[in-house]
Amino acid sequence: MKPINVGLLGIGTVGGGTFTVLKRNAEEITRRAGRPICITVVADKNLELARKVTGGDARLTDDAFAVVSDPEIDIVVELIGGCGVARELVLQAIENGKHVVTANKALLAMHGNEIFVAAQKKGVMVAFEAAVAGGIPIIKALREGLTANRIEWLAGIINGTTNFILSEMRDKGLSFADALQDAQALGYAEADPTFDVEGVDAAHKATIMSAIAFGIPMQFDKAYVEGISKLDAVDIRYAEQLGYRIKLLGIARRREQGVELRVHPTLIPERRLIANVEGAMNAVLVQGDAVGATLYYGKGAGAEPTGSAVIADLVDVTRLHTSDPEHRVPHLAFQPNQVRDVPVLSIDEVITSYYLRMRVEDKPGVLADITRILADSSISIEALIQKEAAAGESDTDIIMLTHRTVERNANAAIAKIEVLESVQGKVTKLRVESLS
Question: How many alpha carbons fall within 13 Å on the CB side of residue 6?
Fold first, then answer.
């Protein structure tokens, strides 16, 4: 049978892994796809690198636009990244009637709505398993495996860099700055780690998952995003004393009034499986009404794990290459005319529990003043640690876990606590999720 011809745009880490795995497992992949899948042309500005990776087994060019216009190409794989030229290339490929496979989470989170409409009009597929959680097949699980379920919520450790840093801070007692330095030395963090440590990368992925889980448009601009760069190692220690671990979670939750879409450091009970995901690994926990909780775990990045997801998409597209577009799995799991523009709730409307740490004068009545303020805001306390003042010091830490409340109420109470004469500086607030 005639092979499917693939044009690969970008042969960096993921592109190289895709090319290597596709070549190594060609026979097995052909058996599954029903016909050979061949990367016949590779576009990359670094032709020397492309030549080294491909070993002369593909035609090379530095003109990506020539690839998306090549009449011999059936599927375009976009692994360039970013939202500028990548968006132009993807839209041009679609306009030319080509299917697209991409690992570009930023592109989809910010321009996915436009891209999917264009693909629908041209009757082509856009596949993006590799855009979220590397080699973990979470997109397929949400889009197909859990299709009988009303998804209630999902929570994911979906950035390996931040999970590695948090694991180092917990295991070795390091500060954020020292753990980041270790991550950079080992290649887990970029020279400029902003997208990772400030939660932007995780928010792109959470946006994509929320759209598929709830049948809503991509709404990255409405996501609440908070990273780990201001996290203090002392809070990791106190969380452990209370039976919790701190992870950067991407959370999407269905509520009657809308959808919560947020990324932030989160305390999780240490008995939860997801709380024990360490190092650079990823995990996503999904709660469906019929199936209950399901957990997806594995490598969230890397050449071959992510390349594995790219190739899975290539096989899917190959299988459905000649099928009726009306009978393919919709891009966002729901039929296009059934995608609903449900509002994303502001962070002030989120309902969750809280970890509060405050530095206070070690004298009678301080705790009573604080608990009175919380009670006036209808916030009850689940657990409390009051440390003894160190020798020669007059200040100490109070750490509290609250029951669930609306964020605006928590913020209002914190503002009142911070103006007490007995409270030193700002109150540290972290959100808590039981994930049960």
Answer: 28
Q: Residue 105, annotated ligand binder?
A: yes
Fold (CATH) for 4-135+303-338 = Rossmann fold (3.40.50)
Contact by Cβ (8 Å): 157, 248? yes
Is CATH 3.30.70.260 what the domain over 351-432 is classified as, yes or no? yes
98, 140, 205, 299: the catalytic one is 205
| Average of per-residue pLDDT values in the chain | 95
Report the pLDDT value the prediction gives residue 1, as an integer from 0 to 100. Answer: 78
**pLDDT digits 0-9 by tens, 190-210:** 999 999 999 999 999 999 999
**Is 90 exceeded by the pLDDT of residue 173?**
yes
CA distance 129 to 132: 6
Q: Does the annotation place 12 within a ligand binding site?
A: yes
Is the model's pLDDT at 322 over the cut of 80? no
Beta bridge partners of 245: 268
Q: Is 205 marked active-site? A: yes
Residues 256-265: tens digit of each pLDDT: 999 999 999 9
Q: Enumerate the H helices of 186-302 as residue ranges.
A: 194-197, 200-214, 233-241
Sheet holding 37-43, edge to edge: 59-61, 37-43, 4-9, 75-78, 99-102, 126-127
Considering the chain, tell me which residue range(s) the CATH 3.30.360.10 domain(s) occupy: 138-299
* Residue 190 annotated as binding site: yes
Q: Answer yes or no: are the C-beta atoms of 103 and 131 closer than 8 Å.
A: yes
CATH code at 138-299: 3.30.360.10
Q: Which residues contact 18 (CB under 8 A, 6 or more apart)?
A: 8, 39, 77, 79, 306, 307, 310, 311
Under DSSP, is residue 77 helix (H, G, I), strand (E, B) or coil?
Answer: strand
CA 229 to chain centre: 17
Which among 427, 305, 405 has a CA at the least distance from the CA of 21?
A: 305
Which pLDDT score is estimated for 262? Answer: 98
As given in the structure block, the two tokens for residue 126 are 């856009």
pLDDT on residue 20: 96
**Per-residue pLDDT tens for 85-118?**
999 999 999 999 999 999 999 999 999 999 999 9
